Q: What sequence folds into this?
């Protein structure tokens, strides 16, 4: 494939898919694989466990794909096996390569590819926890389930009913030696974190030498709920509640996955409205982040003024959708609410106000010496690390990766508008800030263009049928990065619904970002990925009472807090 | 008798109005933030509420309570040493060394408060205070001496005699040095590193609650008033002998309030520094200003 051919290619088009298909057949010819086309821009490569690593090496290293996520699925009632899907993205073509391998029910294990593609590290541990699919050739530990959850109970298996509450398993505590526990605890409840997560920072003086992370404190079981209790039409409601900031991205991502699987032609007007609301959500999220960043840097004037400006965008959202947040207008086949001329004028007026105010605020904010000095050169993520960890969104773009789902995997009405994807090469906190700042202005421009070209017609499709056993993926460029939903259709509801939020992909990058940094910069560096833990944690909450394995610092905190 | 009454009135007034000044500061900040903010008496309400809470004396809280009570005592003693706009002072010729000793003691006690605690955040906060404190205290002492040299200060019995005949460049540079070091000592942003909330979760204050926290917070506000008074005093010294004692007292109080407001506005305009950046910046600024002041005095400017 010549580079020029790729550059002129319409990403995600049939031609692009055919080109990747040809390329895969050529590269994987010596392995026993079956390559087939799934819905839309997805190709499925069926490979035996023996050749999984070889195929992953070729797709990841030779074709330059990145790991979007991996998904385990209990397919015993279909083919007697557990299936694992590794979803690779080829940005240059806008095509997903889904590598599928099966593990028989009596030998539930697959070889790990985390050493080849480190971006698959967490999702492998996730399907190990939730489906009991063992991963060989790598260190394994419990990532998602609480410590007192039974070893042999895997909640996403189809024979485990929804709502099961097993009695807690008692385990022996672990005593850490003095050498093992010199860390500074940040979390699970800490003013620098706005949701419960735990970072243990190991320091020499005030310099961080290593970081340990423990997350997944607020599991909610949303995937299980979608697969066992809700119907296709009910899921957008719960999908929008995955996150309080980018909820509309999740519901859009879900409905797009269903629409692709069912081959529903969504009216163009609905696609424009969805894209518009997605951009409103991006402006809202970035303004919120800027405010939080200012607060973490002790510049509360910036914090308060950012949120003052953000108020206008929330009023705008309320005017268009009826809600300040969690808009609730997405349905399969379109949107619930239309917009009229009066609303368009109001949107344009508000956008002018926001643009003017944000410009002024950013000029002032970046002229505050402490803010600029503390953002510059801190929390550096190199391009190599960013590529290796498959980071997404502003984190990737600030480290020199020109990656944006709106351009790379075009969806909704983004193909009708022109916009710039800001990319910086420094990889520091300032670059991530500037990427978000530029994106605010790009989003304003996108909304104006969408309003200018808004087509007439219906806003939803009333009748459609959803066939079973279709494999589909959909991705949305959420404010924090790529949001991806994987779907296998079932009867009346998804057979498998997997959500991968951007924070899930970006948190592992915090380790290289925090190393060799000063403790004072830890909060802004953690915040610079704009972490959203409610997006990331999605299983079941269990209160741990007795016999749990906890680290020494938590014991210390509890003891100190109770000591009189 | 009038001087004694004014000095005592100054101390009593200060102890009563500092929470209100803090309330005004919060209101100013809120105005600049485009928000309504708490009522002016909110700091009083906060302190009252903290004192109404149960006194929990843990192993570390008891020494902290003692230290914070001593701190309040030292703050009041410091207020007695600062001449309240008049040329009279309680401690005559020992007032400058005494003032320096008292300021250093107040800072040391704050650091002791954090080191007594075995909380990691408090200890880190304490060491940050110590780092900034060592640099700033030296600058503050030099600034005080340079300012007094400039105004040609001398003592006669319990009277301060200023020999200033006009405003000099060296006086201005010394006052700038004093104003900066007083601001840094007041522990406001960008130099509130010991309490830096996002990373240290209130640092030196993290283990405190109820009346102990109330006492420490009150002493911190008193400390801020003291440093605002020192800057105000430096600005006021040349005019001290020109005014009658009562008018001087009123003007001095108003000047302190003005300095406090300037401090409050400055804190809104800046972000929090980092311990390495803060120390580097302060060392550079202080060396430059001390050098300039000394040169100006040397050449008689």
A:
């Amino acid at each position: 494939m010549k580079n020029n051919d790729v550059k002129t290619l319409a990403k995600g088009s049939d031609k692009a898919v055919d080109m990747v298909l040809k390329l895969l057949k050529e590269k994987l010819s010596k392995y026993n694989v079956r390559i087939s086309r799934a819905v839309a821009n997805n190709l499925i490569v069926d490979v035996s466990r023996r050749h999984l690593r070889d195929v992953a090496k070729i797709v990841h290293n030779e074709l330059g794909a990145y790991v979007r996520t991996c998904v385990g699925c209990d397919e015993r009632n279909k083919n007697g096996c557990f299936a694992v899907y590794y979803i690779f993205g080829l940005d240059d073509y806008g095509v997903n390569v889904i590598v599928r391998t099966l593990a028989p029910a009596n030998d539930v294990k697959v070889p790990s590819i985390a050493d080849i593609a480190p971006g698959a590290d967490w999702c492998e541990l996730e399907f190990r926890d939730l489906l009991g699919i063992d991963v060989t050739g790598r260190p394994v530990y419990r990532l998602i389930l609480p410590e007192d959850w039974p070893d042999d109970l895997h909640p996403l298996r189809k024979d485990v009913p929804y709502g099961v509450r097993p009695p807690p398993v008692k385990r022996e505590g672990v005593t850490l030696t003095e050498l093992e526990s010199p860390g500074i605890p940040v979390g699970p409840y800490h003013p620098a974190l706005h949701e419960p997560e735990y970072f243990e920072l190991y320091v020499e003086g005030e310099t961080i030498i290593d970081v340990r992370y423990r997350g997944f404190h607020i599991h909610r079981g949303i995937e299980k709920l979608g697969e066992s209790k809700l119907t296709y039409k009910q899921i957008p409601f719960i999908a929008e509640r995955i996150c309080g900031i980018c909820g509309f991205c999740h519901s859009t991502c879900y409905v797009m996955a269903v629409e692709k699987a069912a081959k529903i032609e969504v009216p163009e007007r609905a696609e424009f409205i969805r894209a518009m609301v997605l951009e409103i959500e991006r402006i809202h999220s970035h303004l919120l982040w800027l405010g939080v960043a200012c607060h973490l840097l002790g510049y509360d004037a910036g914090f308060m003024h950012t949120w003052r400006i953000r108020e206008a965008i929330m009023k705008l959202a309320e005017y268009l959708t009826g809600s300040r947040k969690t808009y609730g207008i997405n349905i399969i086949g379109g949107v619930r609410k239309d917009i009229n001329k009066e609303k368009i004028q109001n949107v344009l007026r508000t956008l002018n106000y926001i643009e003017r105010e944000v410009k002024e605020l950013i000029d002032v904010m970046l002229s505050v010496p402490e803010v600029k000095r503390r953002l510059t050169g801190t929390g550096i993520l190199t391009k190599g690390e960013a590529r290796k960890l498959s980071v997404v969104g502003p984190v990737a773009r600030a480290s020199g990766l020109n990656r944006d789902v709106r351009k790379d995997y075009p969806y909704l009405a983004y193909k009708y508008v022109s916009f710039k994807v800001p990319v910086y090469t420094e990889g520091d906190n300032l670059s991530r800030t500037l990427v978000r700042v530029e994106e605010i202005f790009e989003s304003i421009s996108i909304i104006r263009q969408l309003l200018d070209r808004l087509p007439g017609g219906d806003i939803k499709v009333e009748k459609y049928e959803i066939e079973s056993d279709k494999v589909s993926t959909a991705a949305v460029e959420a404010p924090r990065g790529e949001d991806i939903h994987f779907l296998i259709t079932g009867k009346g509801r998804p057979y498998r619904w997997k959500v991968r939020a951007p924070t899930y992909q970006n948190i592992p990058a915090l380790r290289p970002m925090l190393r060799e940094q000063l403790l004072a910069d830890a909060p802004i560096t953690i915040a610079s990925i704009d972490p959203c833990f409610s997006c990331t944690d999605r299983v079941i909450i269990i209160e741990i009472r007795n016999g749990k394995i906890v680290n020494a610092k938590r014991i210390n905190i509890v003891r100190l807090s109770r000591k009189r | 008798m009038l001087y004694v009454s004014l000095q005592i009135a100054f101390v009593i007034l200060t102890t009563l109005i500092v929470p209100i000044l803090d309330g005004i500061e919060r209101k100013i900040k809120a105005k600049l933030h485009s928000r309504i903010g708490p009522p002016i008496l909110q700091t009083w309400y906060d302190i009252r509420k903290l004192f109404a809470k149960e006194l929990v004396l843990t192993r570390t809280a008891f020494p902290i309570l003692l230290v914070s009570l001593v701190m309040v005592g030292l703050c009041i003693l410091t207020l007695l040493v600062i001449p309240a706009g008049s040329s009279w002072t309680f401690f005559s010729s020992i007032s400058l060394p005494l003032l320096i000793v008292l300021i250093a003691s107040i800072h040391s006690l704050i650091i002791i408060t954090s080191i007594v605690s075995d909380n990691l955040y408090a200890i880190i906060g304490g060491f940050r205070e110590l780092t900034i404190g060592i640099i700033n205290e030296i600058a503050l002492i030099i600034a005080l001496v340079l300012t007094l040299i400039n105004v040609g200060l001398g003592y006669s019995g319990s009277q301060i005699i200023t020999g200033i005949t006009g405003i000099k460049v060296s006086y201005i540079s010394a006052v700038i040095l004093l104003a900066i070091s007083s601001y840094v000592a007041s522990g406001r942003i960008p130099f509130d590193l010991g309490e830096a909330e996002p990373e240290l979760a209130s640092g030196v204050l993290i283990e405190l609650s109820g009346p102990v926290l109330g006492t420490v917070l009150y002493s911190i506000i008193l400390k801020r008033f003291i440093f605002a008074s020192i800057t105000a005093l430096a600005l006021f010294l040349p005019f001290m002998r020109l005014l009658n004692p009562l008018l001087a007292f009123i003007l001095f109080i108003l000047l302190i309030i003005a300095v406090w407001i300037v401090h409050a506005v400055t804190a809104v305009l800046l972000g929090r520094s980092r311990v390495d950046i803060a120390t580097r910046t302060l060392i550079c600024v202080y060396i430059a200003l001390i050098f300039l002041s000394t040169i100006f005095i040397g050449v008689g400017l």
User: Anything to note?
Assistant: The beta strands of chain B are 154-156, 159-161.
